[in-house]
């Protein structure tokens, strides 16, 4: 599976975690290369100091990440690209929560452990769709946190970057499906979205079948007859004849405009 993707996934995490930081509003406390003091203490088997954390090397951080996060989410067995986004989420929110997000997305039993059932389900779906769906769940989670106002912009940028980095590792396979059961287009722009088909256009029809043409012809004929002094037999008043002819002309042009509007709306997508 994805045994060669640990290094690019780790590089992504380290790039976003940065170096030593100790923000007073960060519930994780002091960190270096994304590793907290509590994590370093548990890894070494004794209480580590802030000075120990400052001196943490990349090699030791990589060993911690592989053992406590990558292996915990079965990174070597996940499809390439999906492994990166789940790994990054595990670093930020814990391997158990990341596993639960994936299991909920796949509609498999949610136990917080990525085992054979979860892996089989993940391989049955389009990886690009899983990457998009998983990062959407992660985004919804961070937006629900009380510290989102302080850290939300950075978290959102990181989740979006993880989505792009994960999709870059995906090998498209149009023969498999999305979690919804529908075939999924393999695009990095928006893998969860399908294109809307264009609206059908009526086939061309002969000129004599055009209602617009007949409406214009009736209106024009009525005007010409009016100008020519046409009178209706049996009526003594020319005023009535003139009004009737003008009414027919006006009605013809109104009908013409209405038919044109209907035809235009049919052509609009």
Strand order of the largest sheet: 1-2
User: What is the string of helix and strand elements?
Assistant: HEEHHHHHHHHHH
Structural class by secondary-structure content = mainly alpha
Q: Runs with pLDDT <50, length 5+?
A: 180-205, 235-241, 263-269
State the helicity in percent bands.
Answer: 55-70%
At the fourth level of CATH, the homologous superfamily of the largest domain is: Chitosanase, subunit A, domain 1
Domains (count): 2
Q: What is the global morphology?
A: globular
Radius of gyration: 34 Å
| Tally of separate helices | 11
CATH architecture of the largest domain: Up-down Bundle
> What is the CATH class of the largest domain?
Mainly Alpha
Q: Which topology of the largest domain does CATH recognise?
A: Chitosanase, subunit A, domain 1
Protein described:
With 269 residues, this protein is mainly alpha-helical. It has 2 domains: 6-168, Chitosanase, subunit A, domain 1, CATH 1.20.141.10; 207-267. It has 11 helices and 2 strands. The chain has helices at residues 6-17, 37-44, 50-54, 58-70, 82-93, 95-106, 116-123, 127-143, 148-168, 211-227, 238-267; strands at residues 31-32, 35-36. A two-stranded antiparallel sheet has the order 1-2. A hairpin with a 2-residue loop joins strand 1 (31-32) and strand 2. Helix 1 (6-17) packs across helix 5 and helix 6 packs across helix 8. The chain is globular and about 105 Å long.
